[in-house]
Structure prediction request, 217 residues.
Amino acid sequence: MSQPDDTLRNEKLIRTKEQWARDGRLLTGTITAKDRLPPGQRAVETWPVLDLGITPTIDPTSWRLEIGGLVQRPASFDLSAFNALPQSVARSDIHCVTSWSRFDNDWQGVLATDLLADVKPLSKARFVLFEAYDGYTTNLPLDAFSQSDVLLATHWQGQPLSVPHGAPVRVVVPQHYFWKSAKWLRRIQFVATDQPGFWETRGYHNVADPWAEQRYS
Prediction:
């Protein structure tokens, strides 16, 4: 998978977040039952915009989502074909590793379970890799991607996603820190072995469970 262009991404921001990982910034050392607010988090009402300093220019008429790897039915969706998949709405919370959480986000899009039913992963598929249009990558176990609250979102709070928040399509994985919810989704690959992504190779936890406070590796 490609990585973000070094001439475009915000290297100062990335170095700062790598230092956070080395310092264990924000860690409380607490593991809790799944209370609504994970340890070390604070509830906010805004939705901060976080990225690598790159906002890709994506023409909705040329956007494609490529799905391949260990699946029976590889697929390439344009936006019209993607929107023709079964559409669902879901409400969930956001938990960002930078310590904020936002409750009651209403999403619309395609549930991961419906996408999986369409492409049919092979039995040896164990992990899912996401690649974004800015070159960002992240990873999940297939079991985590197949949870009932995971979806590929096109709308938030009844409105189309804005470009800074990942339009036209982003991943939403509520049970993990939000860096696992890749914006500007371009490709999903199903693989047999794990391949850590951008932040996972820069000191951030491979699993990213907020309730276990898995901020850093």
User: Anything to note?
Assistant: The chain has four helices and eleven strands. Residues 11-23 form the longest helix (13 residues). The first strand starts at residue 42 and ends at 43.
